[in-house]
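Worked example 3 (structure in, sequence out).
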């Protein structure tokens, strides 16, 4: 039983780490897209998208 609990905890930790890495990659891509936008209007839209995603909890 103790081994099962340890395995479950390891699996949860691994999933959390993978999710964290995926979110970090997504944030990095959004930041790069923001700075590589060709016009001020594009940058404003990217910033709005980033703020909206942050507000909805998709980025923590």
């Amino acid at each position: 039983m103790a081994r099962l609990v340890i395995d479950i905890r390891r699996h949860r930790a691994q999933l959390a780490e993978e999710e964290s890495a995926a979110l970090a990659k997504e944030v990095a891509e959004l930041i790069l897209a923001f700075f590589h936008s060709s016009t001020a209007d594009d940058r404003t839209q990217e910033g709005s998208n980033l703020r909206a995603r942050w507000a909805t909890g998709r980025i923590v």
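Notes: The mean pLDDT is 79. The longest helix spans residues 2-36.
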